[in-house]
Amino acid sequence: MTQDPTSSERLPTIRDIAELAGVATSTVSRALSNPQRVNARTREKIERIASELHYVPSSQARGLSSGRTGVVAILVPDITNPFFFDIIRGTQHQLKASGYTQLLVDTEEATDVELDTLRKMRRSTDGVILAASRLTDQQLADTALRQPLVTINRATADAPTVLIDTPSAVVQALEHLASFGHRSVVYAAGPTSSWSNHRRWKAIEEAVAQRGMTATRIGPYAPTAFSGAAAADAALSTGATAIVAFNDLLAIGMLQRFNERGVRVPLDVSIVGCDDMFGSDFCNPPLTTIASPVEQAGRVAVSMLMAQLDPIHGGTARKLAVMPTHLKIRASTGPARA
């Protein structure tokens, strides 16, 4: 006696549908993926049985028939960094609205992990969004040849890019510090593999040169609060009166170290962070920082990827989108000490 597939705990398959419909599994596959290739009576019978069994086609099966998986991968260098929370939220919402599933990968700030992940997911995803990629220009170019790709905060001539215009707000930060009488500034740098890190330092160099100020670069430091103690000690040794940190996490770690050493912020030293991450306004003192529409950057990246995946319905393809930034002034900055 043939077992009724509906009585099984396992999920129904096209083989179950084929058995009940009295047709080949290939006929079921065609009826569900390319209905115009199956006569109406057979197709209706198959669709009715599939509905009764509550059959859900697998992403692998869809991929075999249509060449699409319905999955887009989002790669970030550190999933614990709050800056990426809003990017992930933005891509998630926009992908869901577009009928796609998001696959999130933490590449651990490692180029080899990022490359290996991209290689392994080439056939299992329809496209990739790289946030703050650590890849070289050549590696990005090679990747863009093999799969639809959009980068966030990593400019490349070979793939559409969403840039968060941090350098403009860095200039605002230097103007703000100059207005308080600061003439010597320290930049607590982030990872050497970070493209954004180099952009921020270049903006600082240009801004201080135009304002008769001096800038010293220390680091590199991991973009975490744990690195803040070493960065704070190094910054104090320079004698500078103001600090611009690579990101808020590093700045918060520096604030904690200053408190341990009895250094008063902003009476003894001023500090500016970057990213306006959740909690930066809860610090003691609240952190002056660079803010940007991070969630919107994630949404825009998805829109740019959809234009590649579906040129007819995905909208006009853009190569570059620039997101504005601004300085959010709080209590961690003040007049330079006499």
Could you describe the 3D structure shown?
This protein folds into 3 domains: 62 residues, lambda repressor-like DNA-binding domains (434 Repressor (Amino-terminal Domain), Orthogonal Bundle); 124 residues, Response regulator (Rossmann fold), CATH 3.40.50; 127 residues, Rossmann fold. It is of the alpha/beta class and 338 residues long. The chain contains 12 helices and 12 strands.
Layout of helices and strands, plus pairs?
Layout: H1 14-21, H2 25-33, H3 40-52, H4 59-66, E1 71-76, H5 83-97, E2 101-106, H6 111-120, E3 127-131, H7 137-146, E4 149-152, E5 161-164, H8 166-179, E6 184-188, H9 195-210, E7 214-218, H10 228-238, E8 242-245, H11 248-261, E9 270-272, E10 289-291, H12 294-309, E11 320-323, E12 326-328
Parallel strand pairs: 1-2, 1-3, 3-4, 4-5, 5-11, 6-7, 6-8, 8-9
Antiparallel strand pairs: 10-12
Helix pairs in contact: 1-2, 1-3, 5-12, 8-9, 10-11
Shape: elongated
Please provide the count of β strands. 12
Strand order of the largest sheet: 2-1-3-4-5-11
The topology string of helices and strands comes to HHHHEHEHEHEEHEHEHEHEEHEE
Report the uncertain regions: 1-8
Main sheet: strands, sense, barrel: 6 strands, parallel
Number of helices: 12
Helix content percent band? 40-55%
**What do the pLDDT scores average to?**
90
Whole-number total of structural domains: 3
Protein name: Transcriptional regulator, LacI family
GO molecular function: DNA-binding transcription factor activity; transcription cis-regulatory region binding
Keywords: DNA-binding, Transcription, Transcription regulation
InterPro entries: HTH_LacI, LacI/GalR-like_sensor, Lambda_DNA-bd_dom_sf, Peripla_BP_I
